[in-house]
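Researcher: Hi, I'm a grad student and pretty new to this. My advisor asked me to get structures for two proteins we've been looking at. I'm not sure of the right format, so I'll just paste the first sequence and hope you can take it from there.
Model: That works fine. Here's the first sequence with its structure tokens right after it:
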Amino acid sequence: MSQHHYTGAILSHIEGFGQVYDCGNCGNLHVQIGPMNLTLEPRAYMQLVDMISTSAANFETWMQQKRVHQEVRDDNQERYSS
């Protein structure tokens, strides 16, 4: 019986959501979210990280703009319905 020495690592884990890990065998990174699994080469993983970081920054800006537009709509509706 051969013994397997585990050399992988969990890089991030959120209980009930998913994890990012290196299995230690294939040289790729694994992104698991719920039932979905992505296996990415390190360069592709870093591109994904960059894309998500950029989208998170843009999302915050977008949400702020959306809030301002909603406040203007609410003010206009209040003004014209009185």
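Researcher: Oh nice, that was easy. Here's the second one.
Model: And its structure:
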Amino acid sequence: MKKIIITATLTFIVSSLGWNIYFGVKQAFLKLYLMDLKAVTRMALIQIDNDLNSDNKDLGKRKFDLLLQEWQKFESERNYKVNSMNDILNKLGELDERHKKPEQNDSTIADAP
């Protein structure tokens, strides 16, 4: 009878420790994941805010729409990766480049003799 009680107690202790370690590691990874997600989103919102404050309202609106689309994908897709969220910054940069190119072409034409 003593062996049964000792075995049951040890089984309970080992399984409790295992579950606590599992959930602790899972929470740590979740916090890291959310920190990365918050950083990307904050940087995107700063870019959008800068565009809206510098009279680039159309560019700011396009960036906001892009962020909203990606956020909707993030909420709806179960396997959405933060790396995909990091692509938002690349896409926002591409929007900046496309927005700047027509301005550069106009100044080149105006400077020509």
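Researcher: Is there anything I should tell my advisor about the second?
Model: You could mention this: Residues 2-53 form the longest helix (52 residues).
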